[in-house]
Amino acid sequence: MRRWIATIAAATFITAGLAAAPAAATPKPEPDPRATSVPRPPEPPGRPDDPPRDQGPPEEPSEVLEELRAPTDVDRSLEAGIQAAPVTNRIVGTALAAGGTGSVRAATLNTTASVTDRTAQRAGGADRYATAIALSSLHFTAGASDVFIAGGETFPDGLSAATVAGDRGGPVLLTRATALPAGVAGELARLAPKNIWIVGGTGAVSAGVASAVQQAVPAAAVERLAGADRYATAAALSKRFFPSRPPAAFVVSGNDFPDALGAGPAAAQQDAPTLLVSANSVPKATETELARLRPPVVYIAGGTGVVSDTVASRIRSLTGGQVVRVAGADRYATAAAIADRFFTPTTSRVVLASGLAFPDGLGAGAVAGASASPLLLVDGVDVPPRATLDAARRVSWWLPDDGRVIRYTVVAHPDDDFAAWSLLGQPDPRRYDVVIVLTTGESSGFCTGQPVNNQWMNQQYLPQPQPTGVQYSDRCIKHRMDSWRVFMDGTDVGPVGSWQRLTGGPVSLGGRELPIPQRRSSSGAVEPADYFDLSVGADAAFVSFDMGALLPDEVLWAIQTTRGLVDRFPTEVEGDVVGAAFYNDAGTGYANTSADHKAVYDALGRNDLGMPGSQYSSVGHAQSGRAFGAMVTGYCGYMCHPAASAPWKGSMGHFQYSYGWLSHGYWTPGTVDAHAGFSQYQSFAKWY
């Protein structure tokens, strides 16, 4: 199984001061209203979030179709929850807008910078030629050995040039067909390149322009790379710069530009050429070059509407290798899919360019490739496309150059862990995961005292012996926690060591003493819940509290108490905190206003814990403050089930195996905000 906790997003190392004891002048908190003496009811009192005793999967699970952006009546402004990152921390690089505000709006850039914990940066000029110069002067401050010149009036030659330029660490400058624009000669002189490559025939860059380029840098070697058409020019670039078999090749449409913009920096990352095809055929020049290269894998950027399966089949026969399509629902989602596949955190930049016009993206592609960063597309409105924002956030998880960083995941109830699953990533030696489960779930209406009986019992983990305990009983606690530990053991977070029972004491946050949590015992009496179990491993630690109904201050107490254990972990460098307690009162999607979940949501949304990283909480896709989201990696391995509908019908997933008995044997899978089960796509709010 893949590891379930995500890569860390944070910024500069800043030691978070942990207040292990309350300040002397701090007033005592108001008594918890639950601590008053109340007559015991005939049955143990329920908690506000208790499910119905007969809860099972609905006949038709709620399915919310993903939208490019939230409904217009939902406030997703910065003021609603997404706050600008402080200049002193949480900065992981830059979000670079290519072009002026007509290409990438100010609000689009600022929102992306805030969500990704980056500094907003813009490189733009009065026109496409000046913007290419601005991009070159911004990134290539010390000059460049190789500079590429392409026509700025059409896109194909510049797209092919951007890939090679990014791979060789040089800029792409644009020119008019018959006249070198003002400023380009001066930028060429500043760059002082050894080689200047003119891409395209004399119809795109005339002989007169080539002469002006040579005059600007007399010592440079100027060479034209061109073919009979756009396909042959791309093949000529490939042949010149990839004389031997590359590890991969990229194929994009030669009829339109958007998919190629995102593919260029990825190709540069892979040391791979980019070749052009038409929608339904492979031009002769491309065929010849693919047959010469014979790359082990060819990546097609874009869906079947721009590069057909017929073309993919022909490429496979030409190369004898693997053909992989990387695509999304539209140009924005395709660029995001490319970023997700080829770029890992943390990239030095996130580069934004218009997906509606090509010129600024040509120079931006070279800068993105040279800085090993993705190029993502925006659409001319204030809120970036969701796919763009999600991909930008994913590549912005901060990881240190050396050493390890702690990430805290705060789980409301055992089985809520999945709310953070979309943030999982490949195991990373630079991350140390600390999972905090706040309650043992013993108040759950699932604990009825009746034997577990469902038709999939022989495929599931079931707590033994049966029957389960009733609400608030030790038996119910054991069964809930047994399932949790079985699930955690199978997620490859650990292994962790033996469990140790510890007791927490007073802690404070911001000069305010946090109250000791309280819970109800099996007899219904109110008692302190200041104890917890700790298990520490080489790659992760589990902290299991046994609280009652949660209050925000109790959530904070548990987090601060866990932070006080930092000297027991292999690293003391803290990163992010993520609340795994799905909350949604937006009126769109699956509503979940559980009091315990809201306590986690409020605790993280209203209190800055002062960590170097950010604070997130799992929310509905249209919830106020929603900042970004991601797909759950290996979703079927967790949620597939024999009773599920396509595409999730299959053998028992690990989550279903571990927790199926809690929902009559079956949790319903779903794509977005799925009722009863857990979604393949998860969204997160961000406040700090």
From TrEMBL:
Residues 21-62 are annotated as: Disordered. Keywords: Signal. Residues 1-25 form the signal peptide. The keyword Glycosyltransferase does not apply. This is Cell wall-binding repeat-containing protein. It comes from Agromyces indicus.
